[in-house]
Amino acid sequence: GAVVSQHPSWVICKSGTSVKIECRSLDFQATTMFWYRQFPKQSLMLMATSNEGSKATYEQGVEKDKFLINHASLTLSTLTVTSAHPEDSSFYICSALSPLAGGIDTQYFGPGTRLTVL
Amino acid sequence: AQRVTQPEKLLSVFKGAPVELKCNYSYSGSPELFWYVQYSRQRLQLLLRHISRESIKGFTADLNKGETSFHLKKPFAQEEDSAMYYCALSPGGSQGNLIFGKGTKLSVKP
Description:
Chain A has 118 residues and is mainly beta. Chain A has no helices and 11 strands. In chain A, the strands form 2 sheets. In chain A, strands 2, 4, 5, 6, 9, 10 and 11 form a 7-stranded mixed beta sheet that branches. In chain A, strands 1-3-8-7 form a 4-stranded antiparallel beta sheet, with no helix packed on it. Chain B has one domain (3-109): Sandwich (Immunoglobulin-like). Helices cover 0% and strands 43% of the residues of chain B. In chain B, strands 2, 5, 6, 9, 10 and 11 form a 6-stranded mixed beta sheet that branches. In chain B, strands 3-8-7 form a 3-stranded antiparallel beta sheet, with no helix packed on it. A two-stranded antiparallel sheet of chain B has the order 1-4. The chains are: A mainly beta (118), B mainly beta (110).
């Protein structure tokens, strides 16, 4: 089946530093990937849609200069949290879109990255 | 506004009992609806989608446009069904731009 990986699985950083999170589709190519954020005991909130070779589309309220997304290849999208602050501490989850048999697209999710900003 | 509501944060049932996880949505068009499941320490995975009209692991869900609901049901719960269940809506008809409910934690007791 389609597998999506994320690296790192958890990261702790100091306030003011930048952190990069990678999302890879391991056995399929994904022209579209998504980045979600999940606060404790809350649902996943879509942050942005990442399209290979073009600029990401950000959801309302998400600062594109703070959450930099780069989808440089069909198997890799990166999310960089710039000048991180404690309020950016969260669980970040990516997904990759892949067509199932029959042509129906399905999102496959990564395991998530726990970011803690001190 | 597009919204998915799962009114129950926690649902606890005994093994063998029927289970129904509620999901209501708000969307003016024709949405595509999904149920995702997240087992302990595992990633989110697709359980089923309304367009497929399938039964996965004994679970079914019927889209009721009149009641704008997409409740997830299983006649006989098993302990291995214990997990977080998320209802999600895709306004575009594909799986882009998923809007998730807050999730219901299902606990099946022996």
